[in-house]
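Model: You mentioned two targets. I'll fold them one after the other.
Researcher: Yes, keep them separate.
Model: Target one:
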Amino acid sequence: MQPATQASTSNLQQRIKALVPMIEARAEQVEAQRKPDDDVIAALADTGLFRAFVPAAFGGDEIDTDTFINLGLLVSRACTSTGWVSTFYMEHNWMLAHFPRSTQRDVFGGRGYLLAPATISPGGHAVACDGGYRISGQWSWGTGIMHADYAILNAVVEGEEDGPRLFLLPRAQVQVLDTWYAAGMAGTGSNDIRAEDVFVPSDYTCPLKDMAIGRGAGLPDKGAARYRHPMMPLLCIAAAIPALGAAQRALALFRARLEGRKLYGMSGKQVDRPSAQILFGDAHARVRAAELTLRDVGRRLSDWGERADICPMEDRAEMRLSAALAVRECRDTVRRLMDASGASAHLSAHPMQRIARDINTLSCHTVFDADIGAENYGRLLLGLKPASPV
């Protein structure tokens, strides 16, 4: 089988566009129930969205990063939380393509894609045993667990010196803890996950160090370019897409507000004020610059997939920092738009306040800590070892 064509990805985009009104209409409900909407996730699955990063050998689309951004933005502009869960569901299928081929056949051979959270912090420990490992622990930030069929969990194996290992467990073998009470991104349902002495076969594991550089054991013999690049920058893109979508939606809401809002004690509408015109023009340019930055990271990442050599840490650190700075620009722009939107934009029925809270929370994800990102990049430029994983 071949990767998706431009025509097929265009058709996929059209199917998702048709769902945007539904996603927008249920965004408030999603936040209130603290998890994605069942009907929305089922409808997105029906479009084929979650097969986007599945290898072509298993019926997937093997999309490029520009297409990833295009698809993710369609959902994220309608609902930041739903966009967040969707982009991570897509990216976690990319991760599964690094697991052994036999495991991919088991999982992709079912409904054709995986719905799973994936932890990047080793919240558990594992012990090697006959035929596999026994894993226990508790993991936070379980984005995607509410509609999952599997969970990808990161744990340190006793006695192994190669670093943490990723474990693929059926959803039925883990416990979901009701911990997700958040000021923003409440609709992601990113509850804690617990496992107690669960057996995981060896084939259902993957060393994190192999996936981190795009060299997992299960990569296809041919056409592996979509998977042979490093993991962390792709994770950064997955997490940044909802921030960009939120900022783009905030711009649209602010423009509509400008054209109808009258300022107290002044004649005319806010749209007639030079200060509002300056703010809108500046904000539009900043969000556009953030998008160009994110797309540039994606294209450079794709370029590394075409090469035989491994992407060096310096490049990985720079791509992570660039994504973090793009998210910071989106967050700061939304804050400025919110400041100029008046008190009524803070009412719970107005989507602007939810976007502002969502992007504030989203921007605190560990991969968007710009100080850590800049420290890592600076150390590598100076010939020093990074302070944290890249």
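Model: Target two:
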Amino acid sequence: MIPSISVIVPVYNVERYIDECIKSICASTLKNIEILLIDDGATDSSGQKCDKWAKKDNRIKVFHKTNGGLSDARNFGIEHAQGEFISFVDSDDKIHSEMLAKLYDVCNENKIKVSICDLFLWNTDKNIPVYDLSNSRTHQEIDYYHFSGMYHNIACRKLYHQSIFKNKNIRFPFGILHEDIGFWWMVMSQIDSIGVVNEPLYYYRQTNPFSISKIKDIQRHSSDSISSFYYGLKNIYKCLPPLKKDIYLDAFLQRYMEFADIECITPLANKQHKELLKLLKYTAIRSSHSQLKENFFKQIYIPYVVPLISIKFFKNANKVYLNTSLKIFGIKVIEISVGEV
């Protein structure tokens, strides 16, 4: 029997938390699932604990691989998943016993490919519920701007139909923090509607000292956020459905301008930022958000005037003679070639 859901759990040095995580998934009221534990080269006892769980529950499959990072482990899980749907659970988090069943029912009842639930900001003392879905309907047209808020971006708390991943571009980017951002924008480009479960059913741990939120490198957070946005848009830009391209890009631009912090970024992120601005310039010009447009054109890399003429000197022109002649009149000759706006 094909599993209803493949639950993918990347595992790396979480010996303090992994038992609680796996136990919560095994207790799911939806029984027809497979649990893929991806041991990403853990150097503590996490891998051994996964093997012990596999002996207790035949729905568990353990994969031991060399360390490649969180994105690599998730992508590995996608390639090995057999379920109709896929869900991601981080190995220091846990889920409510009804989360998978309710997300699955919403998708099936409404014949949609993605569903999402509310979550808890979870620590050992208390649970803080985050109700950020703001709609009591279980099925709604996706609002790209609303569903790209802070906690909406995380890969967990959702269900994804397997068919989404037939597009090989829809994978997590390697080697950066905030990899979920670009991934989620790619997923959203593939769907028109989303299922909503207005209950906090995912427990998002806040007390793991090794989580990315504890990394204090501001430059890395800023740079990797830009890189993730860049990865998401570049991989999907050319195949955006024409009927929703303008709405999608407008929402993307709004979120990018809110998230992007260019005060302290790496040269690579700086380059990616410039490329994103070029891709989004036409969207900014047409946007009905006047403040967004104003902020966009304050960016030092983008001139407000849109080039309408492409000028290029003939390849066989004697540029040396031309330069010399025009310099007499104080004119500097440059070669301009303007591509697509």
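Researcher: Noted. Anything on target two?
Model: The longest helix spans residues 267-286.
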